[in-house]
Design goal:
The structure is a single chain. This protein has helices at residues 2-15, 60-64, and strands at residues 34-36, 40-45, 48-53, 74-77, 82-88, 108-127, 229-246, 252-270. The chain has 271 residues and is mainly beta. The protein folds into 2 domains: 22-126 and 233-266, no CATH class; 129-227, no CATH class. Strands 1, 2, 3, 4, 5, 6, 7 and 8 form an 8-stranded antiparallel sheet that branches. It starts with a helix and ends with a strand.
């Protein structure tokens, strides 16, 4: 009899409704980090979102291209920097977060706010996309102040480095002097600098003047130098430590470590 009473007590206890304890699990693993405006980062999963808003003096580009170390990789979330988890009345899109005034719909049906320590790790890769694999990152062939690996005209002859390679990406040496054209200021060895020769075939020989040793006529005015530009790519990792989110009903979501994800992208830098 005692065993039966104990069993009935357990069943009754389990059937009691003390409220809704269905606290979300924050399922954002497969969602990409998006961002807009003044350093508002967010992840969207249908009608749910996890938002981080940072308050810094950096522009968006400065923030995303900044090398991170122990002096600048930590942000405390909870006051001027914030984190929130929202559930909306319907699926939400990125445009919701990129407007100064949020639209009337969807509406926020539930919100958790809280604290965490955000640690950032950033991998920056710079490349002039000229097709040449540079081994000496301090080499500046034309002395213009831009290292070759960031210079899309390494020798400053007014010809893009990528256009001084063959169709297989191998360097061309037009005058066979042992100096590849992309590093040679006189590609055809006619004693007239390439930048002072025409890009046209003025003698109709089938070879443009700057590559034709038999066409040694200098321009009256040198061609314009090419403006250097390169691509700076970033892979910014967001990791949250000691994440605590609380809603108006004191329902709490906690994580010792939460992998927010990696944001990737690039900017074109012009010197």
């Amino acid at each position: 009899m005692k065993k039966i009473l104990a069993l009935l007590f357990c069943i009754a206890l389990l059937s009691c409704d003390d409220g809704d304890f269905d606290v979300p699990a924050l399922d954002f693993d497969s969602q990409n980090i998006e961002f807009c405006g003044d350093l508002v980062f967010f992840k969207i999963n249908d009608s749910e979102s996890l938002i981080i808003e940072l308050n810094t003096n950096d522009t968006q580009q400065e923030f995303l291209l900044k090398q991170r170390d122990s002096n600048n990789n930590t942000f405390q979330l909870g006051t001027s920097n914030t984190i929130s988890y929202r559930i909306f009345s319907e699926d939400v899109s990125s445009s919701y977060f990129c407007q100064s005034i949020p639209p009337a719909t969807p509406t926020v049906t539930k919100e958790w706010t809280g604290t965490a320590e955000l640690i950032l790790e950033n991998t920056i890769t710079d490349d002039d996309n000229d097709g040449v694999e540079e081994t000496d990152l301090l080499l500046d062939t034309d002395g213009d102040g831009t290292f070759n690996y960031l210079d899309n005209d390494d020798d400053g002859d007014g010809i893009l480095t990528i256009n001084e390679l063959d169709i297989d990406g191998n360097p061309i040496d037009t005058d066979n002097d042992g100096i590849d054209d992309y590093l040679d200021t006189d590609d055809d060895d006619d004693l007239i600098l390439t930048i002072n020769e025409s890009l046209s075939d003025t003698d109709n020989s089938g070879t443009v003047d700057y590559l034709d040793s038999n066409s040694a006529v200098a321009l009256s005015v040198s061609r314009d130098l090419i403006t250097d530009s390169y691509t700076s790519s970033y892979a910014l990792i967001f990791t949250l430590y000691n994440l605590v989110l609380i809603d108006s009903n004191s329902e709490t979501i906690t994580f010792d470590v939460f992998d927010y994800g990696t944001l990737t992208g690039s900017y074109t830098i012009t010197n």
